[in-house]
Amino acid sequence: MRTWLIILIAVFSMSACSQKPENIGEKDVLPRGVSVQDSHLDNNGNQNYTDEKRANYLANLAASVPDVHNASSVVIGNLAVVGIDIDQDIERSKVGTIKYSVTESLRHDPQGAGAIVIADPDLNARLKEVGEDARAGKPIRGVMNELADIVGRVIPDVPLPENEKKPEDAMEEDDQQNDEDIQHIQKEQSNDKNQ
């Protein structure tokens, strides 16, 4: 009986490791939920906020802050990144104040809560390129990778809380548990042979 159980466990273990990878090439042809909007376009005032309308709304809201010449926004699901274009001759401390004002105006609006604001000209140019790629229908993987790079430069890595496990630790615990299970099964098998 135990040998059948061991064989059954071995078969299930091997079959779990041999799953075919999905053909993801077909899945990322047309991105869903990717919207880009420049602030110079008109907002039609419709309050049904799809991602596209939300991007337009956020760009217009950011552009309405004093000293902001133009703004662009990329919205993908819950992630919103707003790039602001300000005069290059403004002092750095004033840039921080303008960025803070935009962040506050977005934070106090239900559609802009949690939006990431960038004022760096290089990152803003990259954000516009991401928007152009999304409008051109480029694969979502490339758009998301570029957007992740932009957000990664703005938001630093945050360490995990002390009580959460790292993924590597969880894998080590699984390996240790598997080793213990194998030793237990081998011990049972050797006991069966001795009887």
Key phrases:
alpha+beta, 53% helix, four-stranded mixed beta sheet, 4 strands, 195 residues, Alpha-Beta Plaits, elongated, 6 helices
Sheet with the most strands, sense and barrel status: 4 strands, mixed
Note the total helix count.
6
Portion in helices: 40-55%
CATH topology of one domain: Alpha-Beta Plaits
Query: What is the chain-wise order of helices and strands?
Result: HEHEEHEHHH
Q: Quickly give the structural class.
A: alpha+beta
CATH architecture of one domain: 2-Layer Sandwich
- The H-level CATH homologous superfamily of one domain, spelled out, is Cation efflux protein, cytoplasmic domain
Descriptive account of the structure:
The chain has helices at residues 2-17, 51-63, 92-107, 121-135, 140-154, 167-194, and strands spanning 34-38, 68-76, 79-86, 116-118. The two termini are 15 Å apart. Residues 24-31 and 40-46 have low confidence and may be disordered. A 4-stranded mixed beta sheet has the order 1-2-3-4, sandwiched between helices. It has 195 residues and is an alpha+beta fold. The chain has a domain at 34-154: Cation efflux protein, cytoplasmic domain (Alpha-Beta Plaits, 2-Layer Sandwich), CATH 3.30.70.1350.
Helices and strands in order, then pairings?
Blueprint: H1 2-17, E1 34-38, H2 51-63, E2 68-76, E3 79-86, H3 92-107, E4 116-118, H4 121-135, H5 140-154, H6 167-194
Parallel strand pairs: 3-4
Antiparallel strand pairs: 1-2, 2-3
